[in-house]
Design brief:
alpha+beta; single chain; four-stranded antiparallel beta sheet; about 20% strand
Length: about 160
């Protein structure tokens, strides 16, 4: 009888070990998913914060003080970006953020990279860049992190109309 008891005890230990191992791997997997979700949520928040900051600026340097009805007086599409004397955070219009980049760290993940691009778009095709001045500027904000598999991107279209 002692041989059967030993065999049953060994089988019980083996079964308990397998159940314990599976439970631990499930807990670890859930913890990893939770951390990934926090990283992605933070990246989304950083992109949204950047767009909200840009919303506070004038549409164009030509419209800082006075509105215009002539798109030809707006900044050339080849000159979008900060002027030589403009430095972040003292930008005065939307297109100053073209080419803007910075690194941000958060409590649970560091080295988020934020990049902005600004360009003119057509009133009827807001997904396509145009190389003429229009009353529509699109801002794309991309946030990346070494802890994310994909880059988070948010876009917003600003209009003077």
């Amino acid at each position: 009888m002692s041989g059967i008891n030993s065999f049953l005890s060994l089988g019980s230990l083996l079964l308990l070990s397998l159940v314990s191992l599976r439970f631990n791997s499930a807990v670890l997997e859930n913890s990893t998913i939770e951390t990934e979700n926090k990283v992605y949520l933070t990246a989304f928040s950083l992109a949204n914060d950047m767009i909200e900051e840009i919303k506070k600026k004038a549409f164009d340097v030509a419209t800082v003080n006075f509105p215009t009805t002539d798109p030809s007086v707006l900044t050339s599409p080849y000159s979008l970006g900060p002027a030589a004397n403009e430095v972040y955070p003292n930008y005065n219009d939307i297109d100053d953020f073209n080419g803007y980049q910075r690194k941000v760290s958060a409590p649970h993940a560091e080295n988020y990279g934020i990049r902005c691009s600004v360009y003119y778009v057509s009133e009827y095709y807001p997904d396509y860049k145009v190389m003429t001045q229009t009353f529509y500027k699109r801002v794309d904000v991309l946030v990346s992190s070494p802890y994310m598999k994909q880059t988070i991107g948010l876009s917003f279209i600003f209009t003077l109309k």
